[in-house]
């Protein structure tokens, strides 16, 4: 399959010139794009079928493994039930009224095994509650709880246990207190969770409400607050007050752990009086600088800062009647004046560029424009005017006849660009051709070998290889061949084509004109691997 470079060489061999060359290249590039798109689509379909077959195979294997595990668990459970029934019939296990047979260690009964604590998956507070209930139901001595607990800990919990002294490690209450602090399951931790919790993605509203209530209950429980209305009101208002205070005052109040709102208010008053401060700090600068208006700021001047541009010469005082050149806001004022002047003239854009579909409409728009300029006392320099032209150069592009192309001087810059040798030169070349990336199909994928050279960690003197040479030549050919895009017509149907590969994503916006699809714009995105 011919490449873009081969197509251009063939056009040179056939000695095509002007519009004939342009039409030939357009047709060949179109056929090339269609062939590439067709091949990529077929490859994507083959890959999708392969992945679908692999997914189906994995799914069937997982289902078979699941059924096998369920069957094994069922068989194991049946065997245990038969063994338990046999022991009951043989009188090994006795169903005593007071339940001592189930609690005795020599009764022969097997209790369910308590699973280990999984750091990062289990909630420590809930897991410890289950451990305590399990220990009580099995009649374990509380003196042995800490030694039994350490065998079930993993991760950060085990690390926290290992940092305790021998005396603390033998005391279950000390171990529990250390673990709760390590996982921020304290009064302050539950307070923060209650104040800042958000609905998780996998949570239903009912589950979220239960979690909020749990945080509140644990906060109240650990703060040792009575659940009467007055006590709860005191706790919540006290928390809200400290949360709204300045940071240093709030820190001081929390350090003292004051039990009532009255004592909090008294201590806060003493703190502020000792420092000769108010509860609300005075406004102060956030950044070391002075606030100054932006160039496009619009608003009334402060009287003491108003400037009229006046100056004195002897006894006479003069001032400007119009905005002088060089003032900070002169550019913004001119832009606002022109925008106000051209209000509701939809076919006149920045820099007084006029676009119309017919000559009559063009003359009518010019007449209205000159009339408004004259009424506003604006002057237009004839030497800078271009009237009645079918094409016009604007912002590096050539517009006209329903198409948009390249400006000749920019094409010459790309044609004369030398091969980059350093990172900076690679960036300059990519910036030069990247200005016209909307004209180049799959620009991101084509330029990927060059953009890889300027990534962080690459040497300043680039390593130029075959892939970089191909990308360099392809980009130069793509720009110097002067492709054109169709100007969009919002009243006609658009066609969007997309493509993807391991190197990048590509898209082409097209529009059908007289039965033929013409490109309006190309877009692409490189995929970092």
TrEMBL record:
- Domain of life, source organism: Eukaryota
SCAN box domain residues: 191-265
Which residues fall in a compositionally biased region of kind Low complexity?
98-107
Q: Which InterPro entries match?
A: DNA/RNA_pol_sf, Rev_trsase/Diguanyl_cyclase, RT_dom, RT_RNaseH_2, SCAN_dom, SCAN_sf
CDD domains the record matches: UDM1_RNF168_RNF169-like
Please report a single Pfam family linked to this protein. RVT_1
Q: Where is this region: Disordered?
A: 29-72, 94-116
| PANTHER family xrefs | RIBONUCLEASE H, ZINC KNUCKLE DOMAINCONTAINING PROTEIN-RELATED
| Protein name as it appears in the record | Pol polyprotein
Q: Provide the species name.
A: Plakobranchus ocellatus
What are the top taxonomic ranks of the organism? Eukaryota, Metazoa, Spiralia, Lophotrochozoa, Mollusca
């Amino acid at each position: 399959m011919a490449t873009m470079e081969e197509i251009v060489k063939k056009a040179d061999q056939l000695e095509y010139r002007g519009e004939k060359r342009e039409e030939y290249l357009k047709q060949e590039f179109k056929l090339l794009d269609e062939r590439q798109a067709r091949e990529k689509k077929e490859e994507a379909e083959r890959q999708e079928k392969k992945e679908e077959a692999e997914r189906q195979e994995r799914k069937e294997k997982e289902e078979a493994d699941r059924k096998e595990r369920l069957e094994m668990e069922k068989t194991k459970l049946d065997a245990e039930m038969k063994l338990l029934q046999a022991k009951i019939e043989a009188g090994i296990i006795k169903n005593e009224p007071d339940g001592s047979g189930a609690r005795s260690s020599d009764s022969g009964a097997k209790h369910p095994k308590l699973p280990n604590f999984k750091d990062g998956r289990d909630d420590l507070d809930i897991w410890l509650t289950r451990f305590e209930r399990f220990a009580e139901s099995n009649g374990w001595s509380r003196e042995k709880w800490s030694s039994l607990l350490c065998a079930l800990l993993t991760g950060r919990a085990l690390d926290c246990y290992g940092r305790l002294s021998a005396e603390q490690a033998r005391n279950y209450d000390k171990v529990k207190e250390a673990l709760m602090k390590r996982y921020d399951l304290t009064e302050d931790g539950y307070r923060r969770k209650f104040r800042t919790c958000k609905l998780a993605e996998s949570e239903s509203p009912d589950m979220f409400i239960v979690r909020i209530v749990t945080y509140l209950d644990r906060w109240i429980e650990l703060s040792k607050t009575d659940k009467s209305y007055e006590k709860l009101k005191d706790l919540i208002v006290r928390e809200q007050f400290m949360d709204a205070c300045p940071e240093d005052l709030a820190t001081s109040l929390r350090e003292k752990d004051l039990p009532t709102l009255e004592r909090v208010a008294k201590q806060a008053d003493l703190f502020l009086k000792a420092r000769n401060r108010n509860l609300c700090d005075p406004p102060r600068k956030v950044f070391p600088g002075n606030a100054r208006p932006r160039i496009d700021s619009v608003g009334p001047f402060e009287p003491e800062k108003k400037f009229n541009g006046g100056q004195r010469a002897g006894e006479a005082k003069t001032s400007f009647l119009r905005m002088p050149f060089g003032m900070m806001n002169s550019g913004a004022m001119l832009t606002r004046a022109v925008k106000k002047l051209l209000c509701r003239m939809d076919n006149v854009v920045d820099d007084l560029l006029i676009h119309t579909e017919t000559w009559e409409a063009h003359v009518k728009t010019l007449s209205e424009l000159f009339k408004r300029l004259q009424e506003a006392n604006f002057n237009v320099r004839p030497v800078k005017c271009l009237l009645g032209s079918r094409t016009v150069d604007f912002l590096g592009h050539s517009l006209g006849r329903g198409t948009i192309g390249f400006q000749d001087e920019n094409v010459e810059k790309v044609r004369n660009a030398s091969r980059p040798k350093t990172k900076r030169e690679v960036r300059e070349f990519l910036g030069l051709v990247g200005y016209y990336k909307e004209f180049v199909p799959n620009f991101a994928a084509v330029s990927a070998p060059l953009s890889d050279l300027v990534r962080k960690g690459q040497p300043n003197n680039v390593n130029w290889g075959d892939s970089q040479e191909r990308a360099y030549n392809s980009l130069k050919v793509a720009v110097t061949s002067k492709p054109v895009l169709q100007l969009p017509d919002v009243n006609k149907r658009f066609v969007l084509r997309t493509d993807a590969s391991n190197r990048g994503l590509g898209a082409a916006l097209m529009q059908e004109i007289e039965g033929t699809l013409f490109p309006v714009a190309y877009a692409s995105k490189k995929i970092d691997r």
